[in-house]
Write a structure and sequence with these properties.
With about 650 residues, the protein is mostly helical. It contains 27 helices and eight strands. The protein has two domains: about 280 residues, P-loop containing nucleotide triphosphate hydrolases (Rossmann fold), CATH 3.40.50; about 350 residues, no CATH class. Helices cover about 60% and strands about 5% of the residues.
């Protein structure tokens, strides 16, 4: 393997964190930088690029999206690949789960091929030990020719050694001193011959800091991003590279298999498994279904009982005494303009409605919801829930991988709509966007609905109703939207005790993001409602919405909450909370309102992203479908509940 120096980069970084999804990269990023990137036990949730300075140094660390291979199939892998190719990083820290070393090592070999300095981090060594897996680290280090660090990231073990090794490679040792120790990788003879041919053709070009050999490998595999490097006019690329090869399989797949064979050969005699372990009664339907119900009740208890029934009541009482009443009295005394008084206070004021919704109702419920969700997430249970639902998703024309955006939809529908890009086919993306828009409540809406539910029986009726609608919509979409069925694959992390530190950091990070987004939007919505009220437009829209709401057996006051829900889903839910607090709704009306509000049209932000991702025509159809479905299901449910008494 020959390594060459090149110039030019797009990502300013000294060190890159690279690895499969769900191996602890984000925890290591936090430990090294002191900053926090969202930690998730579910593959594919790291879609952003996180940048920070390694503590005690001037070195910039970049946490790349999760990737399994350079021969990418997902958007995250493609982004990570481009960062590695284009970045001028001195060191790549390749994080792998120790117990999954055999599956992860091909990526390590590909990273070594780049001719950047590579550190292999064997993370979660404690879990490997539980599985009876022993790794001869010294032998592996000798065979690969790169430093290997053992870590238990969630406990901070091995982080100091990792930081020291990074400093050695970036400061104390030159690149050439390290590179001569690396393993020389050789693929099969026919592949090597074609690699050499391509390498000789591109050797004259001044391209990013990555080996010409590896660029040749990527070109041979048909990598579009690397091909684009040579189509740049500045490179004056005129040679016609023939990247075809005689084989019954795709060249990218053949090369990937070559790296897997090399990995198996290197690991011969390195890994020993002394015992068989069975992690998982959770995959058995007999246990998994009760566990799913228990997980739902756990979230309901935190958000519904502790949040809505205790904390919100306390917040409401003190907000009314300390802020609302004194503010309205002050406005009456000191502000003579009614329109200005109602902008600030009154029924729809920025403070009395917008800030009260955001701080008093949404904040405590969502905070406790995020704590409960983070505990379940950190335990490793969510991927098991995905396996449980995989059979169901097949009925929708989706793969298990669709669980990624659908689960993210319970966080934010807008973000989840963007993340549907990770799905392999256009058909799958369309079905996922449809389900997100109609049947998946965002975290804030979900948390508030759990909070306003009169009891667990009510939340069960709500959940069953939404599930049935999701099943019907998905089945219908699977039949009418053409395209091929996707392939399912998923990784299961071991079940573990949630880390209090991780739960706290995840909750804090999400709350900081959520609150910084929510407060300005709630204030803006209050202003829009105020404008609608003084112009009379609000009353006309509410009057129009009161027609279908009356058909659902709901009071006329409930019409405005659906309008609020279009501005922002949790805003509508907070409005529903207000109506319930005032004793306006009966038990039956509360359940019907919960279902209809969940199925109601996507909020403005999600709708705008949907138009961008899937086009206006598709988005308009989804919007109108949501409107019809929400009120139709509400009417049917109300009729059933009336009959049942």
């Amino acid at each position: 393997m020959h390594c060459h120096k090149h110039h030019g980069d797009k990502i300013k970084a000294d060190v890159l964190l690279v690895g499969n999804p769900n191996v602890g990269k984000s925890v290591i990023f936090h430990a090294l930088t002191g900053k926090y990137a969202t930690v998730s036990n579910y593959p594919g949730t790291t879609v952003d690029i996180h940048i920070g300075k390694i503590k005690g140094t001037n070195l910039t660390l970049v946490d790349t999206p999760g990737m399994y291979s350079f021969f990418s199939i997902t958007e995250e892998e493609r982004i990570a690949k481009k960062i590695i190719i284009e970045s001028d990083a001195k060191v790549i820290v390749n994080v792998v789960e120790a117990k999954n070393l055999e599956r992860s090592l091909p990526l390590t070999l590909q990273l070594i091929e780049t001719c950047k300095n590579v550190i292999l981090v064997l993370n979660a060594m404690d879990e490997a030990k539980k599985f009876g897996i022993e790794i001869d680290v010294e032998r592996l280090e000798e065979r690969l020719g790169i430093p290997i660090i053992k870590t238990i990231a969630i406990k901070g073990e091995g982080i100091d050694k990792l930081r020291e090794e990074i400093l050695k490679l970036t400061i104390k040792l030159t690149r050439s001193q390290r590179e001569v120790e690396k393993i020389r990788l050789e693929l099969s003879e026919d592949i090597e011959k074609r690699i050499l041919e391509i390498e000789n053709k591109i050797v004259k070009f001044n391209i990013p800091k990555i080996s010409k050999r590896f660029l040749a490998i990527l070109l041979l595999s048909g990598d579009q991003d690397v091909e684009n490097l040579f189509k740049d006019k500045e490179l004056n690329y005129e040679d016609n590279i023939d990247i075809s090869i005689d084989t019954n399989m795709s060249i990218a797949y053949k090369i990937a298999m070559e790296y897997q064979k090399l990995a198996n050969k290197i690991l011969d005699g390195v890994i020993e498994q002394r015992k068989e372990t069975f992690n998982d009664i959770t995959l058995n339907p007999i246990f998994s279904i009760p566990m799913a119900i228990l997980a739902l009740y756990f979230i309901y208890f935190f958000a519904g009982v502790l949040g809505a029934q205790m904390v919100v009541d306390i917040f409401e009482r003190y907000f009314e005494i300390l802020i609302n009443t004194p503010l309205n009295e002050w406005l009456k005394t000191n502000i003579k303009y009614i329109w200005l008084r109602e902008l600030i206070g009154g029924e729809y004021g920025i403070i009395t409605l917008g800030i009260r919704y955001a701080v008093v109702i949404v904040l405590p419920i969502v905070f406790l919801y995020f704590i409960a969700f983070s505990i379940i997430e950190d335990s490793g249970y969510l991927p098991r829930l995905a396996v449980l639902l995989n059979g169901l998703f097949k009925r929708f024309g989706l793969s298990g991988r669709a669980v990624i955006p659908l689960m993210l939809g319970f966080g934010c529908g807008t973000m989840a709509t963007i993340v549907t890009r990770v799905l392999e086919t256009k058909r799958e993306r369309m079905i996922a966007v449809l389900l997100l828009a109609i049947a998946i409540p965002c975290s804030a809406q979900f948390g508030i609905i759990l909070g306003i539910s009169p009891d667990f029986k009510a939340i069960t009726i709500w959940a069953v109703s939404i599930f049935v609608v999701m099943l019907l919509i998905g089945s219908f979409a699977e039949r009418i939207i053409p395209g091929e069925r996707p392939i399912f694959f998923i990784e299961l992390p071991p079940l573990r005790y949630p880390s209090i530190k991780n739960v706290f950091l995840k909750t804090f990070s999400r709350m900081r993001w959520y609150f910084s987004e929510v407060l300005p939007i709630f204030i803006l919505i209050s202003i829009l409602i105020w404008i609608g009220k003084i112009t009379g437009l609000l009353q006309h829209i509410i009057k129009l919405l009161s027609i279908p709401t009356s058909a659902l057996g709901l009071p006329k006051e409930s019409a405005q909450i659906f309008l609020y829900g279009f501005f922002r889903r949790d805003y509508g839910s907070a409005g529903l909370y207000d109506l319930i607090s005032q004793g306006i709704l009966t038990y039956r009306q509360i359940i019907v309102s919960m279902v209809v509000l969940t199925l109601f049209v996507p909020c403005i932000a999600q709708l705008s992203v949907m138009i961008k991702e899937r086009g206006f025509k598709f988005s308009f159809i989804v919007f109108m479908s949501a409107l019809v479905i929400a009120f139709s299901i509400g009417f049917i449910l109300n009729s059933i509940l009336e009959i049942l008494g």
